[in-house]
Design brief:
With 317 residues, this protein is mainly α. It has 16 helices and two strands. Strands 1-2 form a two-stranded antiparallel sheet.
């Protein structure tokens, strides 16, 4: 069931509100009742508020808890030390468990098992701690994708792949921020599918039939996941460049971070990683521009090995 909410961003002009009302009414009649109606406000931009009305909006705005928000901000800080990360983990059992799983996994070649957050962090290193912590925070906030029609395993591989590739493509200037933004670039889809799975399952069916995902989302939710994700990022007070990159990840329009996220998304697709709704054909090949990076990763198989390690560490228990 849709929830009552007030849109957190800009108010509607009268003209836009009326257009939305007409569209909503046509859909309601066509569908024998249409989607649930969500309360919002109609604002006269030249004067005081005049009336209320209803439009269809995708879902409640997700709320990031204060401790997790602080942890994400720390993960974006390129000057943070391993002790800073350990202090965050020690106050969050789920984060400690994830780093311990990674440190004690066969892929980490453990000589002996470690038992504390500090030991685990030292074993796998600062960058891996940062990446695992960020991935777990994002995954734990959006772990309810059942019955949404999305292949959640492939979606999380997609998010991790875009994060890992974007960090390498962005270089020192945006590295930590690029990884986090890569993980978050589909946050709008996670929000839609997690909170309205039945509606998103209909989107998934349309995509399976050949309709572009963003077009199907716009028909169902009156917005697409990129635009909705940017609204979430704004409400969570993310940096402007992160908001821009999330909103433009299908076009790459904007600054260096937006360009890196878009390129990483294309490269992950070329390396065979789908997005949970669609899957690349066997003919997809990475551009020669990225040959050095692809070789460093060990090609498509190497990327999948990296993804398995991160996925196992951050899998909900």
């Amino acid at each position: 069931m849709d929830s009552e909410l007030t849109p957190p961003i800009a108010p509607l002009s009268r003209e836009h509100a009326r257009a939305h009302r007409r569209m909503h009414e046509r859909r309601r009649l066509r569908n024998g009742g249409g989607p649930s109606r969500i309360r919002t406000r109609l604002v006269n931009l030249d004067g005081p508020e005049e009336e209320s009305m209803t439009i269809a909006l995708p879902t409640e705005l997700p709320v990031l808890s204060a401790p997790r928000a602080r942890a994400l901000l720390l993960m974006w800080n390129p000057d943070a030390e391993i002790d800073d990360y350990v202090s965050v983990m020690e106050g969050d059992p789920a984060l400690t468990s994830a780093v311990l799983r990674a440190a004690n996994s066969a892929a980490s070649w453990p000589v002996a098992r470690v038992a504390t957050a500090r030991e685990a962090a030292i074993r796998i290193g600062r960058e891996a701690v940062r990446q695992i912590t960020t991935a777990l925070i994002v995954r734990s906030e959006f772990d309810r994708l059942d019955e949404s029609g999305i292949d959640d395993g492939e979606l999380w591989d997609h998010l991790l792949a875009v994060g890992l590739l974007a960090e390498r493509l962005a270089g020192d200037a945006h590295g930590p921020l690029a990884f986090t933004t890569g993980l978050l670039h589909d946050i709008g889809r996670l929000s839609m599918a997690g909170q309205q799975p039945a509606k998103y399952a209909r989107v998934a069916l349309e995509v399976e039939s050949g309709r572009p995902a963003m077009e199907a989302e716009a028909a169902a939710f009156l917005t697409d996941h990129a635009a909705w994700g940017a609204r979430i990022a704004e409400a969570w007070r993310f940096p402007d460049e992160v908001v821009e990159a999330i909103g433009s990840h299908h076009t790459g329009e904007g600054g260096a971070l937006a360009t890196a996220i878009h390129a990483a998304r294309d490269l992950s697709w070329a390396l065979g990683v789908g997005d949970g709704l669609a899957y690349p054909s066997g003919s997809s090949q990475p551009s020669e521009t990225y040959s050095a990076l692809v070789e460093e990763l060990g090609g498509a198989r190497g990327l999948r090995r990296h993804l398995r390690w991160y996925r196992e560490a951050t899998r909900p228990r």
